[in-house]
Amino acid sequence: MHYLLIINDHGGRNMSVFPEERKNEILKELNIMGKVKVMELVDQFNVSEETIRRDLMILEEKRLLKRVYGGAIKTVFGFEEPPFTQRTTVNQEAKVKVGKKAVELISNGDVIAIDVGTTMLEFSKCIENKKDITILTNSLPVSSVLTEKLNQNKFTGQILLLGGQIDPKHQSISGSLTEQMLNQFNIDKAFISAGGVSIQSGVSNYHLHETLVSRKMVEVSKQVILLTDYSKIGVETFCKVCPLEKVDVIVSEQPFPEEWRNHSKLEEINWNLA
């Protein structure tokens, strides 16, 4: 038997939501925000706390999310990240803030590496007023944005697009050729993204081949700078990029997580609030 719920949306109109539709709405919100809270879902859907907890339990059994204290977070085991074009609007405001803050860490004359992802796209859009910088990247959208900015004299320097196999879905370049190219350079700073960041698993990502390139960037760079919005904190994805001890700076739009305090291995990380 299906029970029909009548709730108000944000415009004050009545919406009919079946239990399965409610679960789909929870997953949509989770995909956008990275986290959901039980009490907020209770208010949103006008159902009991027990109902929401049961929904989350069912979704966890299907490996569509991971329950945590007070709510749930995204999980990716057994599931692929959405295509690049679908992710460009997810948490975009936070990514722009992070990108603007991260640009402050680029010095004139730097050789930097930028890996893939929508956070890196927003970061690349913010790069300007820098002199004689060399940028290596395995992201097609990042290289396109930077080429246009270089043509417009927004900064001076050069761009090196790393060679290798193109992934059209995620608009990235990876493979052994990409990794071999990175071995040829002395890189000052690696700017890397993440699918998840946790104390246990460190920096992790969805795709093995992209992860191997990011891992190589970490290996050959003097400084590692992680750009992440708060939806990634506490999340563990499929492939490990590096432990948190390898990260020198984290740029995020939210303050240092309370649950990370009193962990000695995180004391050396410089947390930059965007």
Describe the structure.
By secondary structure, this protein is an alpha/beta fold. It has 9 helices and 17 strands. Strands 8-7-6-11-14-16-17 form a 7-stranded parallel sheet. A 3-stranded antiparallel sheet has the order 3-5-4. A 3-stranded antiparallel sheet has the order 12-13-15. Helix 2 (38-45) crosses helix 3 and helix 5 (92-103) crosses helix 6. The chain starts with a strand and ends with a strand.
Rg value: 20 Å
Question: Main beta sheet: strand number and arrangement?
Answer: 7 strands, parallel
CATH topology heading of the largest domain:
Rossmann fold
Q: Briefly, what CATH class of the largest domain?
A: Alpha Beta
What is the structural class?
A: alpha/beta
The number of E-state strands comes to 17
In terms of quaternary structure, the protein is single chain
Helix content: 25-40%
Give the SSE string.
EEHEHHEEHHEHEHEEEHEEEHEEEE
Number of contiguous helices: 9
Low-confidence stretches: 5-16
Instruction: Classify the beta-strand content into a percent band.
Output: 25-35%
Number of separate structural domains: 2
> Largest sheet, order of strands side by side?
8-7-6-11-14-16-17
Mean pLDDT: 87
Overall, the morphology is elongated
N- and C-termini, Cα separation: 49 Å
